[in-house]
Amino acid sequence: MSRLDAQLAFLAEADRLKSVLRATSLHDCSRRENSAEHSWHVMLHALVLSEHAARPVDVSRVMTMLLLHDLVEIDAGDAPIHGDHDPARQEALEQAAAERIFGLLPEDQRAEMRAIWEEFEAAETDDAIFAKSIDRVQPVLSNLASDGGTWPEYNVTPEQLETRVGSKVTRGAPAIWTGLRSRIDAWFDGR
């Protein structure tokens, strides 16, 4: 297979991300978003909100991480943060998916993209910590815009949001979480 053939095969496979539905609905509540839409939207969030990162970040690297981060859902599916799933099993599925999907690329691109995906997953560098934070912010904003969105469906509590989302956002973008906290509190107080 030529280099171009491998690249085109990878891009064709990536198109399948458009068919992976997420728990989060669109702001207008008309339907659930797909994982490709989520990837685009979190990249836009990173571009707009990068000035709020706890530490300086390379927004281009952050956007690359966010572009690639959910490709594994083509095989592993979406595991909603407030859903009931086995994290160890999900991680194993995602690792296998990363091996297969990035494995479609020529070796140099395979290694580079897989390393960026692994960096995002580990969330140890400033870029990855911020990327993880932004990945958590976007669904919160969608749920707030859609009158709680799927929070009632998943019986989400303020404590769960703080533990599962707030702690991650605070690590990479504390000012954003502080700004969201009053909106979240107002939504839960209005229930």
Automatic annotation (TrEMBL):
GO molecular function: 5'-deoxynucleotidase activity; metal ion binding
N-terminal signal peptide: none
One Gene Ontology CC term in the entry: cytoplasm
Organism: Limimaricola soesokkakensis
One family name in Pfam for this protein: HD_3
Domain HD: 14-177
Keyword Metal-binding set for record: yes
Family matches, as SUPFAM superfamilies: HD-domain/PDEase-like
Swiss-Prot/TrEMBL keywords: Hydrolase, Metal-binding
InterPro entries for this protein: HD_domain (IPR006674), YfbR/HDDC2 (IPR039356)
Domain of life, source organism: Bacteria
Protein name: 5'-nucleotidase
Keyword hit for Membrane: no
